[in-house]
Amino acid sequence: MRELALQNCRIDKRYDTRELLGRGSYAEVFLARDTLASEQSPHHLVVIKALNVFLHDDLDADLERTLVENFQNEAVALDRVRHPNIISRLGHGTARDLAGTVFHYIVLEYMAGGDLQAHIRRQKLLLKQALDFIEQTCAGLAHAHERGIIHRDIKPQNLLLTADGSTVKIADFGVARFSMADSPITRVGTNIYAPSEHSPLHAARGNGQGKLTPASDIYSLAKTVYTLITGEPPRAFANSQIASLPESVANESWAELLLPAIQKATQDDCSLRQQTVDDFWSDLARLREFAADGEFSTVLKTADEAPHPHIYRGYTPIAPAMPSFEEVREPTPVSIRPAYAAKAAAAAAIGAPLAQAVNVDQSRATRTSPYIDRVTRDTQAVAYEVPKRRRRLRRFITFVACIVIFTGILYGTASYMRGRFTLPIFAKQQTATANTDIYLRPAPNADNDPIGLVTKNSKVKIVTAKDNWYQVDIVEQGRVRQGANNMSRGWLNGKYIDIDQN
Questions:
Q1: Residues 205-244: pLDDT tens digits?
Q2: Which of 97, 153, 217, 378 is catalytic?
């Protein structure tokens, strides 16, 4: 097993890794800072899910190909089921770590509130709060089923909360499958939440083979509901129908209203369960009506309505470009984060290992040696002595640059005082080219929801400018994006476009 060397790194010249959040059987997950997002953006912190095929000791060509395909399928599934209550994919890429290992990654939104399993360990949910989270989960899962995706691993650990604790989103579509698949399913999931047709406990017996259906997710959803409302996992009913509620809640006035719905949903025979999430939500009607009485009167309008999603700020239905991880291209090298530049410079000056400067082990430092020059170039950490003639020339250029900057400041101040800080349409119409995929904004700042997407190499015509933001008309998109609902005019930040020299 070999871990990726991604601690304290900048990935693709954009994402600064902060800490390792976890490691699975095929991927490592890092919390990272998106340097292109403002501090006010809900996505200034993101999750980098990096595919690491070397976590398998018995790696071969077929297994590696399968892992890459599964990783790409996860991205496809996330885009296909994009919904306010399902975790969103924000981007993707291919890069090299500090040891030179090529890896693929996807960027996911960061849910600072943690998972519901950890939440209920700290504090038991009130009935109203539990039903709010259940409704949001039902809304997201029903949408996934409508798009032909079966999650296969619904459990409290895969339900994540936003920072304010108001919104829940379904995560981990790594084992999701298309419901129309005819092949026998692979057993996945957590034993106490997985139905018999999925459960790993039945693998040795040869039981549970069949097609994927929404009823399998409904089984797991019902056991998750049991946990959220009672505060206890259904360990006593692993791979079996729920027959009773825990003693801690058995005497609650609502207990007899909950039990029939989850009993039906956890039957061994798939055909006897609720066949849609909406049916399951409807079977909770009496419990929901009970919660709607008195102080909880705002929970429901009618008992029969479908589950409603809850939209948290920053959500957009526009998905990023679809990844194709099998494309052959030179991956972007990972560089040391700028915060470590001073340490890297000191290490370079005394000939110390680069790993010593960034707190990584000596063996990793040896592997990063082919990339030291590239890294130190990026962070300007190479110290060398220049000839006297060159030093004089550099001082002269610095002096001229200072004069130009000072003149620009004076001109900008004068323009501002005259009320001309927002430039009119250019006297000579200028054009520019997008140097990356970038969202189109309705105003000259990033504190708003995007109204479209300008793809890399798109041609735009500049209409006006303000504070290094440009209002543009899209002349020609760099590539066609199926299903994208783009506006033809909006604002772009100047660092994402290259102005053509006319």
A1: 444 455 778 999 999 999 999 999 999 999 999 889 999 9
A2: 153
